[in-house]
Design goal:
This protein is of the alpha/beta class. It is about 35% helix and about 25% strand. The structure holds zinc ion.
Length: about 280
């Protein structure tokens, strides 16, 4: 068994790790690199493996830095399953179509204003092709991914549908349990359920979120790290992806705004009416 880190390693975005067990190869996430346009475009254009090598893909959650290159895989003829929770699948249908739209508009803008040619990585047809291959698996339901690899999604508490993935790997006499954390959320959030650290891990692949811009506190990450015996860390995440790829952020922001408005109304209702004084 071996794991190769193709993204979110020594940098922030582009999460992608490939787990190999015997003849099976499974990609864990295939996120988009974000940053300076030319540099990110170059990284995103090149897939780190031949798609036909993969037996399947497992997606931890819908954020673009974890899911954003999946349609590129479909464009290159990938015809195997992509597993995700039902909510992640629903979010991907919207967010990846939006990503394709943004890329098309960016390409139009560059061609018109700067006379630069920057073709979109993928289009709506690639997204549709990918969505046909995306299979929903509920939390806490073990499923066979490929020969020698069985997986279970558990709640990661990061955004709607986000999951950590427990992988049961068998190769000859060897049997090993690996936990891929995905992005781990906080405890006690108003909308999202708390993370559920899986029991009985043998090896953990943990991506460490940044502690301020995504609102994740170091104490929360440390709490999970105490639960998970870490042998490998995929990345030290030192900056957040753009906010348009953060439905968790926008959900919390909406809730905070609604609370602010309710408090203002409550205070206004308690203030004496000056006209009557
Ligand atoms: Zn995320």
């Amino acid at each position: 068994m071996n794991v190769t880190f193709h993204g979110a390693a020594r940098e922030v975005t582009g999460s992608c790790h490939v787990l190999r067990v015997g003849e099976s190869s499974v990609a864990l996430d295939l996120g988009m690199f974000q940053g300076r346009r030319a540099e990110a475009q170059q990284k995103n254009l090149t897939l780190p493996f031949t798609p036909s090598e993969l037996s399947a893909v497992i997606l931890s959650h819908a954020h673009i830095d974890h899911s954003g290159r999946l349609p590129l895989l479909a464009r290159h003829g990938f015809d195997r399953p992509v597993y995700a929770t039902p909510a992640t699948r629903d979010l991907c249908a919207i967010m990846l179509a939006d990503s394709a739209h943004i890329q098309e508009k960016d390409a139009e803008f560059l061609a018109k204003r700067r006379r630069e040619h920057a073709a979109p990585l993928y289009d709506q047809r690639d997204v549709a092709r990918l969505m046909r291959k995306m299979i929903s698996i509920p939390y806490d339901t073990p499923f066979d991914v490929a020969a020698g690899i069985r997986a279970t999604f558990v709640e990661a508490g990061h955004i709607l549908g986000s999951a950590s993935v427990v992988l049961e790997c068998r190769e000859g006499n060897m049997s090993r349990r690996v936990v891929f954390s995905g992005d781990i959320g906080r405890w006690g959030l108003p909308i999202i359920r708390d993370p559920e650290p899986p029991q009985g891990r043998q090896m953990g692949l943990v991506e460490e979120p940044k502690t301020d811009e995504q609102g994740v506190e170091a104490g929360d990450v440390m709490a999970l790290r105490r639960e998970v015996p870490v042998r490998a860390r995929a990345a030290s995440r030192s900056a957040a992806p753009s906010r348009r790829s953060l439905p968790g952020w926008s959900g919390d922001a909406c809730l905070r705004r609604r609370r602010r408005v309710a408090q203002q109304r409550h205070r206004a209702a308690r203030r004496p009416d000056r006209k009557t004084l």
